[in-house]
Amino acid sequence: MTAADSGTDTAGAAHAVRVLVPTGMLGGGFPPATVERGIALGADVIAVDGGSTDSGPHYLGTGTAKTSRAAVALDMRILVMAAHHAGIPLIVGSCGTSGTDAGVDWLYGIVQEIAASAELPLTVARVYSEQQPAHLASMLSQGLIRPLPPASPLRPETLQRCSHIVGLMGHEPIADALAAGADVVLAGRATDTALIAAVPLQRGLPAGPVWHAAKISECGGLCTTGPRSGGVLVTLDQDGFTVEPLGDGARCTPASVAAHMMYENADPFRMREPAGTLDTSTATYRPLDHRRVRVEGARFEPAAQYTVKLEGAAPAGYQTMIVTGIRDPELLRRLDEWCDQLLGHLRQAIPATFALSPADFDLQIRRYGHDAVLGAAEPCRDQPPREVGIVFIVTAADQATATQLAKFANPLLLHAPLAGESALPSYALLGSPPETERGQVHEFVLQHAVDVSKPGDLIRTRIDRIGR
Amino acid sequence: MTSSLADVATLVRSKNAGPFWLTVDIFCATSGDYERVAASPVTDPHTIAAIYGIPASSVRIFGLPDLHAIKISFARPVIQGSTTDRDMHAGQQYVPLLGIRVPDRLHPEVSADHQKAPIGAPIGMPE
To answer: How far is residue A175's CA from residue B121's CA, in Å, rounded to a whole number?
Structure first.
């Protein structure tokens, strides 16, 4: 291999690679000038994350996006135009919040509109990572799926229950799509870091600093002193990387950068990727000036086995809820007693009234203003509250049943007296009707990883030329 | 004499670390304050286990002395977004830690013990 082939210059050091990360979440918005600034500083690629599990299982369960389409289209228009005019690729990961195939196609539709209205010729890769339960069940039977802490070994029934399953791709399928000529890569579920690492690794930079830079910059400006002012530019080379803010007035300090390794990570020093583990315990963080930080010394330990982590969401029933307000001081002093009495009565009366067994429905009371947020961990639970919002939640197998049970509970949530009370009290129901249907709810059921023989094994890529 | 963690720390926050883990970050202004928190029941896995109703064996505690920061991670008592979850992003779950008592001044031996047995790998920082 010649120096030119390997992307090295005559001095033997690889060329620096600059990655522009405009925001931590596509659709969150950013000042367009911050993208222009990153391009002017020599960005080689724009990488942006379009998803997360952080908003809960609904989005994976339904294959729908958390973000509004208009907000995503606005951000995408700025990024597609900037990347096109600079002649650099744009990588979007975890499209449509959960990275389902529908999420990738949703974003593809947005890119098609942009290409058509701006008359841009674009080569767009869609890299899909949604998984079929039957295929995974076959891999499970071959012993290729392992639990990750704190999960138990996977059972095939759990795969069958899922409405959607995605695998978190590494950087390889993204880099392959770029090598195949894509201007825009729309990736399904991917590690947040893979989007940023793809081009630097493709150009031969060492894995330790590359994955470290990717983790530090994955949330855009969150590693700066001005998280809402815009994104960051990371400049990577053979020895490490430099991170600088793109927003007005924002600064990167050694503390703001190093602290980002703690963010949403269970372990602040080690982070697993499909191909191995990033170890930042030996990294150093040094200010270059008042706004740029130089980071060196992270290591990457290649794993003996390449693994793809799975995420899956399964239906968990339908919910209907009722909100009622309680302000009566005597009741608030005896709130536990009142709630236990109400739930106890309903749990007995429902099977006697409806053709349901106790396993067919779930009743919960959340006491906002008392202990709804912390539950048993609430340190002030023994102090009577001044006012409480009772949120009564029914979960059942279908919406009609959940609503019928809520209607059955309605008179109690309006009138249930304390034991020994002779007058009929009334509480402050919110609205008419008081019940609100929440629709189908989902739950995350997979915390498992699949052994694959090569990075692209669970991934499908489609490349199209669109526009002009 | 003691203070509460809320008095000593400059920032205490909690968040999901994926749907199955919860992580709490505690930041102090000085290494002295960091040492006080590190020597308090805040860094005892049994304290954390009792508050959140989880096994002490699942609690992981990291010291980041150069950042004056402590990280506490444990398997989420309830999986994120399941029907019994109370806090989708786990963003309020740090609050029960705020009242934990933190020693005002470290006994020299306590400090020395802590120096001998750091509670996590140090993170490299400029002098």
So the answer is: 33
* Residue A356 Cα distances to A316, A348, A359, A435, B125, angstroms: 17, 11, 8, 20, 62
Token readout for A408 is 């059955």
Contacts of B60 in chain A (CB under 8 A): 266-267
CA distance A180 to A412: 65
A106, exposed or middle or buried, with CB in 10 Å at 0-12, 13-18, 19+?
buried
Asked if B16 and A266 come within 8 Å (Cβ–Cβ), the reply is no
Which residue from A53, A364, A376 is facing B18, i.e. has the nearest CB? A53
Cβ <8 Å between B71 and A441: no
* DSSP label at residue A86: H
Long-range contacts of A102-110 (CB under 8 A, 24+ apart): A102/A63, A102/A64, A103/A50, A103/A51, A103/A63, A103/A65, A103/A188, A104/A128, A104/A186, A104/A187, A104/A188, A106/A65, A106/A69, A107/A50, A107/A72, A107/A76, A107/A186, A108/A186, A110/A69, A110/A72, A110/A73, A110/A76
> CA of B107 to nearest chain A CA: how many angstroms apart?
28
Which pTM was predicted? 0.94
Predicted confidence (pLDDT) per residue in A251-299, tens digit: 999 999 999 999 989 999 999 999 999 999 999 999 999 999 999 999 9
Structure tokens at A368: 């906002």
For residue A118, how far is the Cα from the chain centroid? 31
Contact A402, A387 (CB under 8 A): no
The residue with tokens 């506490």 is B72
* Number of C-beta neighbours around residue A160 at 10 A: 12
Q: What is the mean pLDDT of residues B108-113?
A: 50
What's the confidence (pLDDT) of residue B110?
52
A270 near B CB under 8 A: no
B91 touches chain A (CB under 8 A): no
Question: Going along A22-169, which residue ranges are E strands?
Answer: 45-51, 90-97, 122-128, 145-147, 164-167
Asked if B125's CB is within 8 angstroms of A285's CB, the reply is: yes
pLDDT tens-place string over residues B31-51: 999 999 999 999 999 999 999
Cβ–Cβ contact A227 with B under 8 A = no
Contact A135, A114 (CB under 8 A): no
First to last CA, chain B: 32
